[in-house]
């Protein structure tokens, strides 16, 4: 399985945001997408999911081009988004989240039992309202809700946002478990500690284009590039 994105253009009424993005990710690998605020990372994930309509380019999952397809068709083809801010439903229980998402299941890879093993806290709290979970637990639920649909590619938008370091470590372990199952991950993330821990490769977006690409060890050996493109000291 591979996802190949070529020359992707997309934006909003007030203008184009992505000006021809290329990226590739394979089964069982994690690609991190980095960039300064406003670079277009969320727009990229939302375009891959069909929530923003591309104006040009291709999004090939194996031999199917999904560019321009509706989100439900993209989900059925095997792409799932864990959105920025998690978007869980506060007044719905943990179990109901998984039951509702499980109706859209396209593969039996991630069963409820398997998700319970990966997220024992969600199993314990299955009858609680999601709004009563901690931020970390809500993020686990958002990831579980994506996995239960049986995706081949999971798009994660800033999963560490607002979480304590120990909880971010758990997110890292979760991403490792997801890729070990053969699923590909595209991770948009500001926390470089998490990125360096889980990503095989890194693509940096600047002003809607790919400014840099490297495997993670090479990126770590090049702090000047990280500083120039991201404004951070690694
Ligand atoms: N719904 C929208 N309508 C119009 N413009 C938008 C919309 N969403 C984002 N934009 C604009 O698109 C550009 C890219 O935003 P985007 O959220 O994709 O960046 P980002 O790299 O994810 O930033 P951050 O790291 O802050 O989340 C910004 O200029 C933003 O103002």
UniProtKB/TrEMBL annotation:
Alphabetic keyword roster: Amino-acid transport, ATP-binding, Nucleotide-binding, Transport
InterPro entries assigned to the protein according to its UniProt record, in alphabetical order: AAA+_ATPase, ABC_transporter-like_ATP-bd, ABC_transporter-like_CS, BCAA_Transport_ATP-bd_LivF, P-loop_NTPase
GO biological process: L-amino acid transport
Stretches assigned to the ABC transporter domain: 3-232
CDD domains: ABC_TM1139_LivF_branched (cd03224)
Highest rank taxon of the organism: Bacteria
GO molecular function terms attached to this record: ATP binding; ATP hydrolysis activity; branched-chain amino acid transmembrane transporter activity
Keyword Ligase: no
PANTHER family in the cross-refs: ABC TRANSPORTER ATP-BINDING PROTEIN (PTHR43820:SF2), HIGH-AFFINITY BRANCHED-CHAIN AMINO ACID TRANSPORT ATP-BINDING PROTEIN LIVF (PTHR43820)
Family under the similarity heading: Belongs to the ABC transporter superfamily.
Listed name of the protein: ABC transporter ATP-binding protein
Source organism of the structure: Virgisporangium aurantiacum
């Amino acid at each position: 399985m591979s996802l190949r994105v070529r020359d992707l253009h997309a934006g909003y009424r007030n203008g184009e945001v992505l000006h021809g993005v290329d990226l590739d990710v394979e089964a069982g690998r994690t690609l991190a997408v980095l960039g300064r605020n406003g670079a277009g990372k969320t727009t990229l994930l939302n375009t891959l999911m069909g929530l923003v309509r591309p104006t040009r380019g291709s999004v090939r999952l194996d031999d199917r081009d999904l560019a321009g397809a509706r989100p439900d068709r993209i989900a059925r083809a095997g792409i799932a988004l864990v959105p920025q801010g998690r978007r869980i439903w506060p007044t719905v229980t943990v179990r109901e989240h998984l039951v509702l998402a499980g109706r859209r299941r396209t593969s039996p890879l991630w069963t409820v039992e398997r998700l319970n093993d990966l997220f024992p806290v969600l199993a314990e709290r299955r009858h609680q309202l999601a709004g009563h979970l901690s931020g970390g637990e809500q993020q686990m639920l958002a990831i579980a809700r994506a996995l239960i649909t049986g995706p081949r590619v999971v798009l994660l938008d800033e999963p560490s946002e607002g979480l304590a370091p120990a909880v971010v470590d758990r997110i890292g372990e979760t991403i490792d478990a997801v890729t070990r199952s053969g699923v590909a991950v595209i991770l948009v993330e500001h926390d470089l500690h998490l990125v360096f821990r889980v990503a095989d490769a890194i693509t940096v977006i600047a002003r809607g284009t790919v400014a840099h690409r490297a495997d993670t060890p090479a990126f770590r050996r090049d702090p000047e590039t990280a500083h120039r493109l991201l404004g951070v000291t690694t």
